[in-house]
Amino acid sequence: MDAIELLLKRVSVPRLQEPAPTAEQLDVMLCAALRSPDHGQIRPWRFLTIGGDDRQALGELFVKGLLSTTADANSELIEKTRAMPLRAPLVLVVIARITEHPKVPAHEQLLAAGCAAHAILLAAHAQGVGAVWRTGNVAEMSLVNSGLGLSDHEQIVGYMYLGTPINSLRNPPYVDPAPFVAQWPSRNLD
Ligand SMILES: Cc1cc2nc3c(=O)[nH]c(=O)nc-3n(C[C@H](O)[C@H](O)[C@H](O)COP(=O)(O)O)c2cc1C
Fold it and tell me: What pTM, to 2 d.p., does this model score?
């Protein structure tokens, strides 16, 4: 696939089914993530793959997290939360590992980990793998973080849901960049 076409046409694929990406496809996605711009080459990221029945364990962890933060969670919300990881055959968790660095502040490390997440989406799309980047409150719960083995200096950048698209991919509309860009300093045209 042409690189520019990939950049312009990548879309999120929220409705996913089996099969999960192959080991080779996943490897390409991770290699793409590791090629992300990274000030100081400190590699401020790591990844967890959660597939098969382990997704059920992740759902239970999400429920634990929900109950620890939302005392009045009703049964509908609990069941919805439990089923979240089942929305794709594979969940890839992107984790930012923020360390003290004399030249690279924390926000730059987080941005690099975000670039890694984007690279995963792009490499998925290029290989015909459906992918969507999700966060929500389950990316912010300390109980979920500790259940996934995150330490204090780590945070979840996103859950990348990966699988085979159920529907044909939508064609994203053209968005005019003009309102988002200006020349500086501004020049008077008359
Ligand atoms: C940091 C981040 C977190 C996101 N979290 C969610 C989420 O929890 N749920 C969701 O439906 N979309 C979430 N999105 C947005 C989707 O991944 C997607 O980009 C958006 O729906 C637009 O679709 P598109 O990627 O096809 O343009 C998130 C995106 C980013 C960058």
Answer: 0.96
